[in-house]
Automatic annotation (TrEMBL):
E.C. numbers: 2.8.1.7
Pfam families given in the database record: Aminotran_5
Name this protein carries in UniProt: cysteine desulfurase
Top EC class, one word: transferase
Cross-referenced PANTHER family: CYSTEINE DESULFURASE, CYSTEINE DESULFURYLASE FAMILY MEMBER
InterPro entries: Aminotrans_V_dom, Aminotrans_V_PyrdxlP_BS, Cysteine_dSase, PyrdxlP-dep_Trfase, PyrdxlP-dep_Trfase_major, PyrdxlP-dep_Trfase_small
Species, as recorded: Pisciglobus halotolerans
Alphabetical keyword list: Iron, Iron-sulfur, Metal-binding, Pyridoxal phosphate, Transferase
Amino acid sequence: MERIYLDHAATSPVHPEVAELTYDMMKKHFGNASSIHGFGRDSRRILDQSRIVFAKSINAKTSEITITSGGSESDNTAIIETALSRKEIGKHLITTAVEHHAVLKPMEYLEELGFEVTYLPVDETGKVDPADVKAALRKDTILVSIMYANNEVGTLMDIGTIGKIIKESDSAAYFHTDAVQAYGSEDIDVKRDHIDLLSVSAHKINGPKGIGFLYINEDIHLPSLIRGGEQEMKRRAGTENIPAIAGFKKAVEIMEADRSARLSSFEKMRVFLLEQLEKAGVDFELNGSPDQHLEHIISLWTKGVSAEQLIVSLDLVGIALSAGSACTAGNIDPSHVLIAMFGSDSPRIAETIRISFGLGTTMEQIEILVEELGKAVRRLKKT
Ligand SMILES: Cc1ncc(COP(=O)(O)O)c(C=O)c1O
């Protein structure tokens, strides 16, 4: 049985060239990048070269890139450290109801510390209205954190418009965006879109896990969440993971070289999948924005069929995809994203699956998916 992985939004397989390079680096470059001897200098050189590639990929300066352990740390740093260091200016933050928990949990933590958070609603496509951002901004707003693209339904937010609104307002708010899902698919430009802070993670773009970066605009001084040594220009303590950083750099280079071919093939696969499902008589509806979305994420409401049962059935035939809702410790928690889009009574909450394409996905795999999904839906609808 060929196993088919269609859960790339959860995490992606490491590209073979990335794996090879990372392993090679582990063997050869173990020096501490802070050491002044040759071993250390070798590591430092790799670190510096990688930072140049990361910065260029979002039109930032190299001094604006802080390497972190991934999306969660970048989000936590951006939100918690902004709030703690700017509390004399104000204690109000704005975010949306559909952010990843790496944003929502730090926001809840700040509420416990006495900060006030406005959670903006989204429409049925998962989009926040820029006019709502404008209306929520206050003199004491210190941070707006709005994701670039949603990880469950793939909807893209109007980041450029929102960035402009924040910059033109009288508020002193910084603009943070969690670009963990969008990075690799979208043409991200922090200067064009007035972004002050931006989070990225390597494992969504076929890089190693546990590595990412936080872009911090050069005019911002953000204390480190991880305190200790003076690495990363005193912005993030901890001996740098040079093999993972070099692997991440390689993943970015491959991602940039392949981007347009990859996106057009995902678009074809998406259209094909939806057409074939319709032909197969599967009763479904697409969740998310019909025109402003990531090509590789497809959130489907499989009407009348439990997502949990569908996922287990497909897993038995070797196909891996995920529920619209997050699985934690074997349980499916209702998705806060789908609840924000459709309300907690919507049948979509328990009947949504997420299919996500990536490295290694082929049309043949989509054909198999359609066949197996059709069979499973017919069987489960009867029971
Ligand atoms: C939108 C978004 N933000 C943050 C994260 C967390 O990133 P990491 O797994 O690198 O900590 C994820 C991971 O699923 C994500 O999808």
